């Protein structure tokens, strides 16, 4: 029988009553369309290099810049949620997305497209924390699993079909069609939201500490920039930009943490980590994000460069796994509401470890069916981990810490993604170079490139097994947060 954490000593808070369906619909439609256009651009990277005549290190900034803006905006989202109403943040988010999408569609140069991408990132950085916080506010704890599951369906479904849709646009039209198609849909989502969105969050307007914002931006931004840059080019971890980004970001982040712990009204209330299930949930989600983002980066690279597939074919091959992940999210949400996190997270991580072990044996002769099967099983495992771990952790927080909890969890997901992808690329590159050295061959022999990449990708997948094993160890200590059906107050913090 699963252990639970009692809420008997917690202060009870009545869950406010809202018409949840139209509010959630407005958020989910907006999130889906926005993420569809943003993730769809990734498969057009190679063609954009030719169109704008830019080098790989430059084009990479369409991704690195996007992640960097998220790393800066997301930590501040907890403060924004306490200063502005739900409707104000919703309109701001959609406005940034619309302006960014229109600018991208009209972009005459790479520089303008990059600016458009950064504007889009601001919209996403505002919307995702708003979605999480709104679910916590409008749904009682015993229904949050199902609500988070539906949100997971949207968040995972858009990236799953985005590359395939973008691939078809590239095949039969041009890359701007990605944005021209999304633009009227975003405008429609904004109009829908203006009609149905309601103000659900509590406005407390805590003191704005400019120094905290600066330290947060430099700290999280520097670390994400450092790790992201480490995955680019030949210099890797010895790149001066990486070293400077890591050192400056690390020092700023340390100062930020010390300042938050000493403030009576911190920008990001790190006291949320005093709640043990929130801490464990955040760590498990951190590990899961490292796994999933490193995997979704490794597989497309290997399919195209190691197995000589076209981008559209590679996108279609990974489509079933993404769809399965999205469709499984609502089911996992309902199972979480009924059984709690342990019986989902533990077997989910075990499944992930088994799948990753088989992926360490991937070769150029591996069949398409086997890749689809392994990727689909991996996505099922991830769906058993992400939502249950995050929802259980957020459930333990008192209502006043909801904005901080969502900001912390979403910020660390960006950091996890940067770390996971940087380590994966570094290990893949090192493994590929080792192949040539071990066999006494020259890297200039292009006929050996697929085999060298195979050894590199296998080594990178072995690294992800270590991440998953760490997550499995943490999951043994996870306990279900017992909640009263109409209460917002959970088990008290760890003293």
At the fourth level of CATH, the homologous superfamily of the largest domain is MFS general substrate transporter like domains
- As a percent range, the share of helical residues equals over 70%
Shape: globular
Summarize the biggest pleated sheet.
2 strands, parallel
Q: What distance lies between the first and last C-alpha atoms, to the nearest angstrom?
A: 26 Å
Q: Can you list the strand order of the major beta sheet? A: 1-2
Low-pLDDT parts are 1-15, 485-492
Oligomer: single chain
At CATH level 3, the topology of the largest domain is Growth Hormone, Chain: A
How does the SSE layout of this entry go?
Layout: E1 4-5, H1 20-40, H2 45-52, H3 56-59, H4 61-83, H5 86-106, H6 110-138, H7 144-172, H8 177-196, H9 210-230, H10 240-262, H11 276-306, H12 311-339, H13 342-359, H14 368-395, H15 402-438, H16 449-475, E2 480-481
Parallel strand pairs: 1-2
Helix pairs in contact: 1-5, 1-6, 1-7, 1-8, 4-6, 4-9, 4-15, 5-6, 5-8, 6-7, 6-15, 7-12, 7-14, 9-10, 9-15, 11-14, 11-15, 11-16, 12-14, 13-14, 13-16, 15-16
Explain what the structure shows.
The protein folds into 3 domains: 19-195, MFS general substrate transporter like domains (Growth Hormone, Chain: A); 209-266; 275-483, Growth Hormone, Chain: A (Up-down Bundle). 75% of the residues lie in helices and 1% in strands. The chain has 16 helices and 2 strands. It has helices spanning 20-40, 45-52, 56-59, 61-83, 86-106, 110-138, 144-172, 177-196, 210-230, 240-262, 276-306, 311-339, 342-359, 368-395, 402-438, 449-475, and strands at residues 4-5, 480-481. The protein has a two-stranded parallel ribbon with strand order 1-2. The chain starts with a strand and ends in a 14-residue tail after the last strand. The model is unreliable at 1-15 and 485-492 (pLDDT under 50).
